[in-house]
Amino acid sequence: METSLHQQLKSYYAVSSDQIEVTMGAYRIDVVRGDELIEIQCASLSAIRRKITDLLQRHDVRVVKPSVSRTRICKRDRKAGEPVSRRLSPKRGHPHELFEELIYLRDVFPHPRLTLEVPVVDVDQHRLVTKGKRRRRRDPGFVVVDTELTRVHGSIELREAADLWRLLADPDQASSATREQFIPSHLVDVEFNTLDLAAAIGCARWIAQRIAYVMRHAGAIESTSRDKTGVRYRAAA
User: Fold this and answer.
1) Residue 137 half-sphere exposure toward CB, CA atoms < 13 A
2) CA-CA distance, 193 to 205, in Å (whole number)?
3) 111 and 154 share a domain?
4) Residue 131: is its pLDDT beyond 70?
5) Share of the chain above pLDDT 90, in %
6) At 191, is the pLDDT very low, low, confident or very high (cuts 50, 70, 90)?
7) Cα–Cα distances in angstroms (integers) from residue 147 to residues 2, 59, 71, 118, 196, in the given order
8) 3-state DSSP helix/strand/coil percent for the chain, to nearest 5?
9) Cβ distance 73 to 87 under 8 Å?
10) Domain boundary among 158, 176, 194
């Protein structure tokens, strides 16, 4: 089922309503804006990998994958009822989390016809409370019934391999940063491993390993050597 977030982003990127949900051959395109096809994906990018690969053979394609910065949790005790409580989730999202999804486009990006756009957004997540009903062991006690857009802070645009560094920068600066600004300063012109990368952006090493995998595959970094700490990399020229 399509969420409010998906619907709102279609309206956000379309100039007029007739650009939304356009049929082209075997596919239905979220937004057709001039010569560019825009696909908005709030779920996993794995679901549209084949579609994007096919469309790129003849069209310019923009894939919009939102990064959720802040989430306000709105709980309901009835599906059609008003929220009984609202609270801001303490968890903050960061664009570097999207590397987990970019693994699915590792054989597609970069491509001369492809633009990846990452709008940094705040959302309201509407939950239906199920506590008190029969529950499975790992049932969290609620189901998410909708996600609604509340704010767009800005967007990060990725066209070339080096642009992937923008996903590691401060989200408030990533859209306009130069290459030298969005590469962590102590990783410029030096060799580093995934432990160094994890420390630079404040994440677990296993996450940094996935980031390095995507960046190396795209050509944003290159492996230079290996030692007892693992593979060492350098930012590609």
Assistant:
1) 0
2) 10
3) yes
4) no
5) 64
6) confident
7) 10, 30, 9, 17, 35
8) 30, 35, 35
9) yes
10) 176
Nearest to 14 by CA among 41, 44, 36, 47: 36
- Which residue type sits at 158? L
234 lies in the same domain as 156: no
* CA 111 and chain centroid, separation: 18
Q: What is the number of domains present in the chain?
A: 2
Helix (H) or strand (E) holding 157: strand 142-158
Number of H helices, E strands in the chain: 6, 10
User: What are the φ/ψ torsions at residue 32 (nearest 5 degrees)?
Assistant: -115, 110
Whether residues 52 and 35 fall in one domain? yes
Whether pLDDT at 175 is above 70: no
Please list the residues that pair with 117 across neighbouring strands. Answer: 64, 157
Residue 15 predicted with pLDDT over 80: yes
Beta-carbon count within 10 A of 76 CB: 18
**Distance from C-alpha of 161 to C-alpha of 108, rounded to nearest angstrom:** 11
**Tokens found for residue 70:** 């802040």
Residue owning tokens 């590469």: 183
Answer yes or no: do 40 and 153 share one domain.
yes
Q: Which two tokens stand for residue 129?
A: 């409370």
Q: How far apart are CA 151 and CA 74, in angstroms?
A: 16
| Residue-number span of the structural domain to which 214 is assigned | 183-237
Cβ-based neighbour number of residue 224 at 10 Å:
11
> Beta strand 114-129 with 60-64: parallel, antiparallel or unpaired?
parallel
